[in-house]
Amino acid sequence: MKLLKPTGFPDRSARITDTESNPDSLTSRKPRxxxxxxxxQINVKASDATVxxxxxxxxELEQPLGAVLELALKAxxxxxxxxxxxxxxxxxxxxxxxxxxx
Length: 102
Hints:
Radius of gyration: 22 Å
Number of helices: 5
Helix content: 40-55%
Number of strands: 0
Distance between the termini: 49 Å
Largest sheet: none
Structural class: mainly alpha
Shape: elongated
């Protein structure tokens, strides 16, 4: 440290991160480790509220995120009915409910 100032090198000391200064941040969750046989990953962009809701539901159900996603997709599929013609139906009750939660 004594050599930094006279030589002009920048100080590379650790800085406080957002997670350290705000422990309630979305990134400060306890680690989740499940052996489920799922081996595919998807990345989606979502609002903070959507991510918080997703994690809250997973915590309440005590299920891994993949299982919650599967349950949500099955519920949405059931709500939409068995459509074989690739047309998107009008907004369903489930879709309206989801949009109100977000």
